[in-house]
Amino acid sequence: MLKNDIGCVIVVEIDNNGGLKPVGIITERDVVRILGILDATSLHLPLREIMSKPLVTISITGSIKDAIQTMHRNNIRHLVLIDKETMVGVITDKDIFKAITSNQTAMSCLGSVEPIAGQKVAYEQFTEYWFRDFLHKQ
Amino acid sequence: MMPESIKEITISGFMTKEVKTISENETLKEASKLMYDENIGSVVILRKAASAGENVASNNKQNQAPVGILTERDIARMVGFSSKFAADTNVTEVMSKQLKTVSPSAHLKDAIALMNQENIRRLPVVDYQGDMVGIITAKDILKIIMKGFMENEKGQELKSEGFDLLGLLGAE
Asked: Chain A: residue nearest B117 by CA?
């Protein structure tokens, strides 16, 4: 996490065919949890014992709204992106924040009193757009 | 009157007023425990000696100057440097001291711009006297944005049925 300046690592199992199967996640919050309720020596425990599981995933075909709702429902900030059965990336709340706030069309949709014709289309286009462009590829 | 754009809303209206704080003489262990217990991602460090978890709003308004912020990321980074790491390290050695703050009268767009520019998710809200009056996070802003999207998308029907749009986003 430190070397790559990222907030999580995905823990994988290697199956018989040499394929990688994601089984859990370690986030910065897990590190804090271990330190807060256990002690520093517990930081040397195997990942299997301290990782958060099961992984919360979202399909590559999901919308930005699905992603935010899933994060809020589970009170988490990282979602593993799945294309059929395969892990294709990780999406974070910061990615979503940046994608929305730097998108003029998305921001211009907000806060107007009367719904504007064509707004829904812009919103839909936007949700497709960000999933294509804003995920962390492996 | 409804603001013309959500971006024009001032910070004071939707910041979190109950900021969890810890004093300068506490340790990483105590900060981690507070963050775990409260299920939060950061604590603000105040200059005055205050008891852990003390609520700013209920405090004496004097000497509420924040001197730094300690986030999950700061702690994870410290742990990564295992040779230097100890749970009894003082919070001031690990916290981010270059504290970025916003005024309660600043607009949402100012907070968004600062977060994006500095690549951070949290901004303590500090008044003209230098006292902390709240905190605004990227999560708070996302919630507001999603509420805006939903209202635009679904119109007023859901509201009139007593459907809580914001509740869709909240923790269950």
From this structure: A98
Q: Is A93's CB within 8 Å of B142's CB?
A: yes
Distance from CA of A20 to the nearest CA of B (A): 25
In this predicted model, what pLDDT tens digit does every residue of A73-123 receive, in sequence order?
898 999 988 888 788 888 888 888 887 777 666 666 554 433 344 445 555
pTM of this prediction exceeds 0.90: no
B81 part of contact set with chain A, CB < 8 Å = yes
For residue B43, count other CB atoms closer than 10 A to its CB: 25
A121 touches chain B (CB under 8 A): no
Of A36, A97, A119, the CB nearest to B142: A97
ipTM value greater than 0.85? no
Q: At B90, list the tokens.
A: 């003082």
> How distant, in Å, are the alpha carbons of A114, A120, B148 from that of A117?
9, 8, 16
Question: For residues A25 and A76, what is the distance between their CA atoms, to the nearest angstrom?
Answer: 11
Supply φ then ψ for residue A116, to 5 degrees: -100, 135
The minimal CB distance from A36 to the residues B36, B79, B169 is found for B36
Which two tokens mark A77? Answer: 């900030």
Alpha helices in chain B (DSSP H): 28-38, 72-80, 91-94, 108-118, 138-154, 157-160
Q: Mean pLDDT: which of A61-70, B23-32, B148-157 is highest?
A: B23-32
CA atoms of B96 and B71, how far apart (whole Å): 8
Nearest Cα neighbor of B85 from B32, B146, B12 is B32
The β-bridge relationship of strands A57-59 and A78-83 is parallel
Q: How is residue A71 written in tokens?
A: 């994060």
